[in-house]
Amino acid sequence: MTREAGDRLTQILKELCPKADVELVATQNEVDRVHVVVRMKPNQQISKLVNSLKGVTARRLFQEFKWLKRRLSGGHLWSPSYFVVTVGGAPSGAIKKYVESQRQG
């Protein structure tokens, strides 16, 4: 993913999260991965949120960056899997700092 496409991905996530009633705490994208930290209510289903975010972001990025689909393995922006970890009472500032430090180079 290029810097431009990654920046647009962040913008799209900032638009989508409030609509899904979740708070986007931090996001960091790299060439081959994206880190997203959200704050959500315990009764919200993470699987539905992830599926929605993946579907909408892929659709929009493919519309805006026509070259992107051709550059991806199998033409898919996202892998079918994802990793989730809960952070409980950890300070959101520390989590945000950690995620933002994950950018390589």
Can you characterise this structure?
This protein has 105 residues and is α+β, with helices and mostly antiparallel strands. The protein has a single domain (3-100), classed as Transposase IS200-like (Alpha-Beta Plaits). Helices cover 49% and strands 12% of the residues. A two-stranded antiparallel ribbon has the order 1-2. The radius of gyration is 14 Å and the shape is globular. It starts with a helix and ends in a 5-residue tail after the last helix. The relative contact order is 0.17.
Topology:
Blueprint (H helix, E strand, L loop, with lengths): L2 H17 L3 E7 L4 E6 L6 H19 L1 H6 L20 H9 L5
Antiparallel strand pairs: 1-2
Radius of gyration: 14 Å
CATH topology value: Alpha-Beta Plaits
Beta-sheet strand percentage? 5-15%
According to DSSP, the number of beta strands is 2
CATH C-level: Alpha Beta
Seen as an oligomer or otherwise, the chain set is single chain
Task: Note the total helix count.
Answer: 4
Reading the helices and strands in chain order gives: HEEHHH
Major sheet, described briefly?
Answer: 2 strands, antiparallel
- What is the CATH architecture annotation? 2-Layer Sandwich
Number of domains in the coordinates? 1
CATH homology-level superfamily = Transposase IS200-like
Question: What is the straight-line distance between the termini?
Answer: 14 Å
